[in-house]
Amino acid sequence: MRILVAPDKFAGTLTAVEAADAIAEGWRRCAPGDDVVTVPMADGGPGFVDVLHSSLGGELLAATVSGPLGEPVPATFLLAGDAAYIESAQACGLALLPLSDDGRTPVPGVAARASTYGVGELIAHAVDAGARRVVVGLGGSGTNDGGAGLLAALGAVATPSEALRGGPESLAGLSALDLAPAKARLDGVELVAASDVDNPLLGLRGATNVFGPQKGLVSDSDRLAADGALTTFADLADRRVADHRGAGAAGGLGYGLLLLGGVREPGFDTVAHAVGLPELVAGVDLVITGEGKLDWQSMSGKVVSGLAALAGPALRPCLAFAGAVQVGNRELRANGIEAAYAMVDIVGADASFGRPRESLAAVAERVARTWSR
Question: Rounded to whole angstroms, how far apart are CA atoms 8 and 291?
């Protein structure tokens, strides 16, 4: 048999590359004669650059940029031909914010000061390196500034002069804005926002109200203040663009990219096109995907649902591996997934979290006994 293994990351335990390798290792232990092809996947969030590099090759270029609170942080972007791929989480990710006492969520209110300035710096580095197409993966951000910091890093001018750099807290005092220098900086460059999020910038379905709580904007007053600041910003930048699909992605980072003439593409589609995934699916007998937790979010715009959507028309069965599965068999099959296998059910929670690579390989070995001919 010819098997395509194309998982997302298992958040908190395995990168997509590590997960793909573990599944392939376990499968080959049971079925050494099978041809197992690994294609790690991502949808624009953490791991975006590594996944594309593993498939496209190209050159990883290092840069030091501003983190969400202004501290210098290391980052890399991928240059493949004249296309550059940037992972916004490397410059403004949740992992770069100080955590509250629970060790999982950011300190309350910290996102009110967090900036996307470093993402703009990464785009500038990519353009200076010769990129004529810049794809920015959106996901895992710890910011809620509408992309204002990104615009400032690319040359946008504001009154007061620092209003764009200090998160929504600073945007509240914005009185004038000129985007022309930032647009000129990217003249002739195709800009793509890679994200599965289609929320607008403002309102009940906007960046602040939907995603703010996971970034530390917990109280109603914090969210009201942040959304009000973004409204002030949008009124001066372009209120119509604030309603576009994806403007609310990554705390409004999508809005900043759209203001500069960028287009939104689903993150999964961006990666699938780059690695030639439809052709790979058509050339195998079985498709395997997976992620850390398989739930209802997995069924909408994520890697698992994207693989299932490609496998169905090609008449290829699609299996899903996950740390935990929270969707029933009937619903899985309705979404194109033939069967799903949970690590916690097969090897137990302690092994799944304590030895994730070995555990995932063991699950793959067990499943191969059923599915390999």
Answer: 5
Distance CA 51, CA 246 (A): 22
Which helix (H) or strand (E) segment holds residue 307: the answer is helix 303-311
Structure tokens at 322: 């996950």
Domains of the chain: 2-41+276-371 (3.40.50.10350), 48-268 (3.90.1510.10)
pLDDT by position in tens, the chain (length 373): 999 999 999 988 999 999 999 999 999 999 999 999 999 998 888 889 998 998 889 999 999 999 999 999 999 999 999 999 999 999 999 999 998 877 677 888 899 999 999 999 999 999 999 999 999 999 889 999 999 999 999 999 999 999 999 999 999 999 999 999 999 999 999 999 999 888 999 999 999 999 999 999 989 999 999 999 999 999 999 999 999 999 999 999 999 999 999 999 998 999 999 889 999 999 999 999 999 998 887 777 689 999 999 999 999 999 999 999 988 888 899 999 999 999 999 999 999 999 999 999 999 999 999 999 8
The residue to which tokens 């959106």 are assigned = 138
Q: In b/e form, how buried is each residue of 204-229, taking b as 16+ CB within 10 angstroms?
A: eebbbbbbbbebbbbeeebbebbbeb
CA distance 355 to 349: 10
Residue 37 to residue 7: CA distance in whole angstroms: 12
Calpha distance 253→94 (Å, rounded): 14
